[in-house]
Each structure stands twice: as structure tokens, then as C-alpha cells.
Hints:
Blueprint: H1 9-29, H2 37-42, H3 49-60, H4 63-76, H5 79-93, H6 95-105, H7 112-119, H8 122-154, H9 159-174, H10 179-207, H11 213-216, H12 223-226, H13 231-251, H14 253-261, H15 267-295, H16 307-315, H17 318-356, H18 364-386, H19 392-415, H20 421-439, H21 448-473, H22 475-493, H23 501-523, H24 532-537, H25 547-558, H26 563-578
Helix pairs in contact: 1-9, 1-17, 3-10, 3-14, 3-15, 3-17, 4-5, 4-15, 5-13, 5-15, 6-14, 6-15, 7-8, 8-9, 8-16, 8-17, 8-18, 8-19, 9-17, 9-18, 10-15, 10-17, 13-19, 13-23, 17-18, 19-20, 19-23, 20-23, 21-22, 21-23, 25-26
Amino acid sequence: xxxxxxxxxxxxxxxxxxxxxxxxxxxxxISRKRENADGYMTGGGKIGFGISAASMTATWIWASSMxxxxxxxxxxxxxxPIHYGLWGALMILLIYPFGRRxxxxxxxxxxxxxxxxxxxxxxxxxxxxxxxxxxxxxxxxSNLIAGGALIDMLSPFTFTQGIIAIAxxxxxxxxxxxxxxxxxxxxxxxxxxxxxxxxxxPVVFFAAGGPSLFETGAHNLTPQQxxxxxxxxxxNQGAPYIxxxxxxxxxxxxxxxxxxxxxxxxxKKTFVTATVGYGATIIGVGMxxxxxxxxxxxxxxxxxxxxxPQLAANYLPPVLLCVFFVMIIGSLSSTADADLTxxxxxxxxxxxxxxxAGKKRANPQTMIWVGRITMIIATAAGLFxxxxxxxxxxxxxxxxxxxxxxxFPVISSFYWNRVTNLAFTAAVIAGLACFLPVRFEWIxxxxxxxxxxxxxxxxxxxxxxGLMAFGFFGRPVALVIGTVSTLAAAPFAIGFLHTxxxxxxxxxxxxxxxxxxxxxxxxxxxxxxxFALIKERTGDFDTRDGGxxxxxxxxxxxxxxxxxxxxxxxxxxxGKDRA
Length: 579
């Protein structure tokens, strides 16, 4: 640790004050004397292309994603970052075909769980809301871990001091304006992050040895790590992540929140742009892990979370080390504030708005305070769990696999009018019941149980590929691809897949939930759901002064004060989009 370059205490404090102070200033500028509850959750559903694309990109170029991509490169070699970044980008791309359908049936919703309440009822809603609470707390925790590792290594401050400072900074600027503060600060953060990445990666590459490193350091890699088509990388990183991308795209509230916030006609444009930005950046950052592998660098204290800060401390000059510090703080803040606003919207809309007060009796001002209190409690929980310093990559794969049990029931609920609440609930429970013992190896999968697990996992392959095809090409193509891929994989997968519990756990969750959902839905021969009811059952909670649209129009027309900045940004975005 003493041999690594560090920033002095005053410089770190100054950088933190400038970054979080600037974010707080932006948040104060858009704050309103009477905040609108719907604006606090989704910005009124009329955010333009520039802000939305930047927010989606910044939210998913997070510190944990950077660290995990570098870990994948260090662990699996050349193909590791490709598997991480490419499939993560595919996750963002998969949002828009399903997202357009979701917005079509629920144009003014705030959470996917809220839509499930309108579609099925309370049990389906709480399952989705509960999984998102768990997922967002884990995501917040992993970002705090990334920030704590950064501060512990690059400054005289400790890991604990680092996570407290970052948590306080993010909470401070997000607390009062909620989602609106998150998306507007994301725009500045993504510009800073992308600019830093373009500078820092080439500098580290040439400082570590440049092109010659691939010759002098080749002996540090195993044959699998040198292989661009490494089976080790595919089965341990690529395949589980392919299985997880659908789950993140469909089940994650931070994505759903941006889906409900962007103007409906800009969904495709927004998410395609974010796909390209995320993929290029994360693959590039992941190559830092490959450089460390070639250079023979061992993570400090054998903790792979230290890998990226360690490279920066070894190879960057002081000025660029400051730029790197801001890049990581910005990347983790952009996702941490998204996690806070996601948790707030779930507690506001799903818990208080529909299950405690009821939609018609919900008090908008109370809702806002529920959101703010949720952020404070979530920050405290994140700090508590961050002290355990879990492996970030393991956390991300676990959450994605856990959401796999929800994917087919959620998607089918937006297209198939025969899916019932019983089918949804039983399918999710069945998926989780199969996922947990396989993923954590609670049972011996040798012999017959292993074959049964492999059969389910093979069906899961067809489900994953079929659902992806369904989003872009429709049901006939999806059925063909799903069936063919299952039959083609069977001779190779059965008797083999159970040796990879991370991958098998994800796939059996998909398969079990799909089989149960389809079976129970086919048994329903009488009940048909009218999707028009979802639009009637979801919508604005806060209708004071005509709701968020009227409030925004009034602000543009003649209001003065902090709200004017937010309204003008929305108006400017609309003008650019029309042009």
C-alpha cells in the first residue's frame, strides 16, 4: 500500500466537495416549493431524448459495472470484458421492444409492480416490488463497496470513512427532488465519465508497457485466458450473463423508471443510444483487467475490487489520478441515486399508494415524505451491508439470476390475456424453488437429480433465446428459435450443465417459471383480461393544479424561481426531438 500513489486528504475532500456540491447545486436549482409526487417518481413521463439517453447510459455505466468488467478480464482473460460488456449492452437493447408494449398499456405508470397490481393483484405486485427492493439495496451496496475501495486505496481515508462520505453525498442531492435530480445530474456525470474513460484507458495501456506487453506478459495467462473463444469464460461469465440480461431488462425498477419517464415516442432512440454508449465504455474499462493480467499484477489484499484503483495508482500521474477519482465517483453516484429513487418510487406507489392508503385516498405530500424516508433508510441499509465487502461480480450475477424467475410471467402478462394471478404467483415461486438449491448447491446434483436439472436448464436455453427473439421478431419466430435451440443444445447440455451452478441456477429458474405459467394459463379457458383496464387503473397520484403536465406548462409560461430550470430543460428537449 505504501508503494502506491495516493491523493492527499485535502485534495480528496476538495474533489468530493466539488462533485457533490455541484450535484447538490443542480438539485437545488430544480427544487420546488411544492414538489409533485409523480414528478418525484418519473419526471411526469415527458423527459426528452438527450437527458433520457444520458441518464440511461450513466445509470448502467456504474462503478460496480466497471469493477466487475475488470474483474472478468482479470479472471477470464481477453474474452472476459467482451462477455460482460456485450451482453450487458444487449440487456439495454432488449428494453425497447418490450418497453413500447409496456408504455402502450400503461402510459402513466411509475413501476412495473404497479402495473402488475393492475393486471393481476396484490401478490404479483408485492413479488415484483420485493425483488426490486432486494435488487436495489444490493446494487446500492455494491456501489458503496466500489467507492470505499477507491477511497481506501487512493487516499489516507479508510474504507468506512469512504462509504459514509459517498452515501451522504448521494443522499444529500437526491433527497429533495428525487428522480428529477437523478436524471439531470446524470447528464453531467455521463459527460465527465466518458471524457475520463477516453483519456485514462490509453494512458494506463501505454504506461503499463503498450503493445509489447502482449508479448512480454503472455506467460502470465493460461491457455483459456489467451483464447478469445474461451469456454471457461463463456460458461462462467458469458452464458450466466446472457441469462441475466433479460431479467435485468424486465425486472429492474431503475430501468423501468426511465422507461416510464422518457417520452413514449423516444423509447427506441433512447435505449439504442444507451446500448452503444454502455457497451463501448464497459468493454474498454474491462480491458484494464486484461492489462493487469498481462502485467502480472495481483490485486491488493487479494481483493479484485481493488484492481482498477490499483492500476490507476500505479500508472496515472497526479492530475489524471484526480480525473480517475472523479470518474469513479461519478459512475457510482449515477447508479446509487437511481437505486434510491427506484426504492422511493416502489415505497411511494406500491406500498403506500396502493396497499396502505389506496390510490384514490393517497396524499401526494405524504407520498413524497415516504419517498424521502425510504431513501434515508436505504442508505443506512447500504452502509450496513457494504461493511461486509462482498464480491461485486457475485452480487450482480445473483440478482440477475434471481429475477430470472419473474421474466416469463411478467412478459406474458403484457401479451397473453389468459395469464392469471395464480399462474403468475405459482410460476415465480416454482422458479425460485428450483433456482436456490441449484445455485447454492444445496443438493447433490449427481445422478438422476443432475440429469433433471440439466433437462430444465436446457429448456431454459430455449426460453431465454425465444423471449429475446419474441421481443424483436414476434411469436412465430420466437417459437421456432426457442424449440430449435432447445433441441440443438440437448445432446451437449444434458449431463454437463449442472457442473456450472451459476449458469444452471439461472436457466432452471427460467424453465420452471415458464412451464408452470404456461400450464396454468392453458388450463384457464374462461377468463380473459382486457388490457385497456391497466390504463384506467394506473396513472397520476398527484393531480393538484392539473398534475405534472399542467404544472410544467405553467412553469414554462410564466413562473419564476428554481423550477424554471427544470421546465426549460424539458422544453428544450422537446424542441430538439421535434427537429
